[in-house]
Every structure is written in C-alpha cells, then in structure tokens.
Design brief:
340 residues; alpha/beta; TIM Barrel; 8-stranded parallel beta sheet; two-stranded antiparallel sheet; 12 helices; 10 strands; 14% strand
C-alpha cells in the first residue's frame, strides 16, 4: 500500500480509502448495502491489516448508522486513533426540522457534534461539505468550518460534489480571512465518467488539492457483470439503484477492453478499472466500498496491478472525453505559441 500527501498538509493517507456507505442499510440506503456490525468490523480489520489508514463515512449514510457501526468497529478492534484518518461529511438532511440540513454555521456545528457522538471519537480528521447549499452564503459556510476547526473537533476540511469555480471562490475567501482552506475534493470519477477532468482536475492539481474519487466502478457498472448481452447482473445494487449516470453504450465498449485486459493479467474487470483510476493525474486516494470481505480483497489487490503503457493508452482512448468549448479553442490557440 502506498501513501500520498493530503493536499498541502504533512498528513499521509493510503492510496485506497475504505468507504462505509454499505454499512448499516437503513431507509434510502438499503439498495447500496446492508452490511451488519460483525461483518463491517471484519471489513475494517481487513482494510487496516492491508495498510489502509483512511476511512470515509458520512452523517447521512444509513441515517447515521454507518458512523455508529464504524465507531464501534474502531473501538472493538482496539485500533489506535492516531493510526487512522477518519473523514465524514455535512450538508445532507439529518432530521425533519427546518435547520437540520445545509451548510449554515448552525448546522455545521450541530452536525459535527452529532457525528462525534455517533462515532465515539474526540475529533474528525477530515470534514467534507457534501454538496452545494444554494441559500447559504459561502462566507457563512467557511466561518462555520473555521469554528469547528478552531474548536479542535475537526482537523482539516474538504469539499465534495462542487464545481471548480465554487471551490476556488471558497478557498479565496478563506485565504483572505485567514481561515482553514479546503485540502481535498471528493468527486465522482471512473473510466466511464471522466467529466471531472474538464475543470476540477486541472484546478485541484494547480492548487495542490487532493482528489478523492468516489464510485470508481460507476456504482458497480464496471464490475464486469454488465455487458451488452447481460444488462442485468442479478443481486447488484445497480439493478435497483441506477446511479451514478452512465452513458451505457460507451461504457459497454470500455467494459469489453477492461475484460480483455483483465484476462491477460488474470484479474477482474473491476480491478483493471480501479488500477486505471489509481494511475490518473492528481489522484491521492480512491474510495472503495465493499459488501463482503471477498469483494474488499479484490479491490485491495488492484494496487498490485501494473498496466503497461500500451494498455493505459488503449483505456484512455476508448474512454476519452469529447472536446468541449473552451478546450478546443485553447488547443487551437496554443499551436504556434512556442518557436520551433
């Protein structure tokens, strides 16, 4: 397991991050996973034994049950708090009342206190804002985040599911005020969904912000179970929860190549898809989830897969984004900029 720098901090996180969205299974989250406490504890143990020191959850996953299960697993396994980097999130609705949602200073503080109670921890290492709140000014959000950092309850902050310009605006305001800035961005990214490369990836690399891809297997669509001749996998979460959106015609072409390369290396299509994401520019830690230990082991072993330059080129070409404005204009204008 390799370790990479978290943004411009001195903190090192494993190249794979254990995602806990499958833990619990309550309400809306049932199709994603219903991993019970005993199995979740073993998944955490297997991850830590493999060298993973970075674990991701959220206050909304299984209506808070994911945080509870993770906290109990850490306690029952007797894991040192200092060996783990724990991330959770704030933004989603966590109750029926008017202010139990969003990125107001009030809700940020309440949510952090509630998450710490569920996790049974004294602090959160990395707190992400989990999405855009269109009615709360960025100034208030950044002040709320600064307050929980200064209180010692949060060490670092990150952003998830935001456009690049919003991240830059927020960090610019934080810089002006002397507040804590975002050190990480968590976004959907897979070989079947490379939209992040248009704006977010260049911004993050330029600003030294870590990129943490979620759903690198496109919600299980890149597992190898789905092909043009097998559009329903049976038992897969994707059968009942078709998310994130995928251009399936293009994805089937990608899957054909994933399977072909996998057969050469005697690995699964999913392992090839994960290995590809791990090799992309700006990637710090790829979030992997699992419903069982076998699935987790396969995901972990993707770090050992060495794709050749020819294979990477083949995967890049089959999955590349069409050029959109202003990218095609920039590509045109750079011609002749440098003397030959």
């Amino acid at each position: 397991m390799k370790y990479n720098q978290l943004g411009k901090t001195g903190v090192l996180v494993s190249e794979l991050c254990l995602g806990t969205m499958t833990f619990g299974g309550k309400g809306f989250w049932v199709p994603i996973g219903e991993v019970p406490q005993n199995e979740a504890t073993q998944i955490v143990k297997l991850s830590v034994d493999a060298g993973i020191n970075f674990i991701d959850t959220a206050n909304v996953y299984s209506e808070g049950l994911s945080e509870i299960i993770l906290g109990k697993a850490i306690k029952d396994l007797g894991l040192s708090r200092q060996q783990l980097v724990i991330a959770t999130k704030v933004r989603g609705r966590v109750g029926p009342h008017a202010n139990q949602v969003g990125l107001s200073r009030l809700h940020i503080i309440d949510s952090v206190n509630d998450s710490l109670e569920r996790l049974g921890l004294s602090h959160i290492d990395l707190l992400y804002i989990h999405g855009v709140d269109p009615i709360t000014p960025v100034e208030e959000t950044m002040r709320g985040l600064e307050e929980v950092v200064r209180s010692g309850k949060v060490r670092y902050i990150g952003v998830s599911n935001h456009p690049a310009w919003m991240m830059m605006k927020a960090n610019s305001y934080a810089d002006k005020m002397g507040y804590e800035k975002f050190v990480a961005t968590q976004n959907y990214y897979s070989i079947a969904g490379r939209d992040m490369e248009r704006e977010i990836t260049p911004m993050a690399i330029s600003e030294g912000i870590s990129i943490m891809p979620w759903s690198p297997l496109a919600g299980g669509f890149l597992s190898g179970k789905y092909t043009r001749t097998n559009e329903v996998a049976g038992g897969s979460r994707r059968d009942s929860f078709d998310f994130p959106p995928v251009n399936k015609d293009k994805a089937y072409d990608i899957i054909d190549i994933l399977i072909s390369i996998g057969e050469k290396h005697k690995v699964t299509a999913a392992q090839v898809a994960l290995a590809w994401v791990l090799k992309q520019p700006g990637i710090t830690s790829v979030i992997i989830g699992a419903k069982n230990q076998k699935q987790l082991n396969e995901n972990i072993h993707s770090t050992n897969l060495l794709l050749s330059n020819e294979e990477l080129l083949q995967l890049n070409q089959i999955s590349e984004l069409p050029s959109e404005y202003p990218a095609w204009m920039l590509q045109r204008q750079i011609q002749g900029r440098f003397p030959e």
